[in-house]
Amino acid sequence: MKSLETLDCCPPLLSETMSTESAQRLAELLKVLADPARLRILSIVAAHEDHEACVCDLIAPLGLSQPTVSYHLKVLQEAGLLEREQRGVWAYYRLVPGPLALVRKALSPPPDSSVESPERAARSSWGRASS
Length: 131
What we know:
The protein contains 6 helices and 3 strands, in the order ααβααββαα. With about 130 residues, the chain is mainly α. A hairpin with a 2-residue loop joins strand 2 and strand 3 (about 90-95). About 15% of the residues are buried.
């Protein structure tokens, strides 16, 4: 995965046209986040004391084996979402806030979106169940 700092160049998805390169980089990050176990890992680490956790803190809450948890931690670390610190035999992981902020920024609606136009409402209704 390319460096996440380059996502900073990405315009908000809902207000500007995104370049092919920016869309590719954001899609790669979203693919990493599109796994329920990885989302849970991020939330557990964020909620954990001192905002860090080791594999041993994650196995029971996730209900996954140690190798599986380690694999997901490695994917999150390689994507730049977690940083790892080795302390003796244990590795501790903590969130890297920048990439999540970039995702939030890219998916944020434009500031003037508080009043939804009829055209925008019609376009956004595709995902709603019909009555």
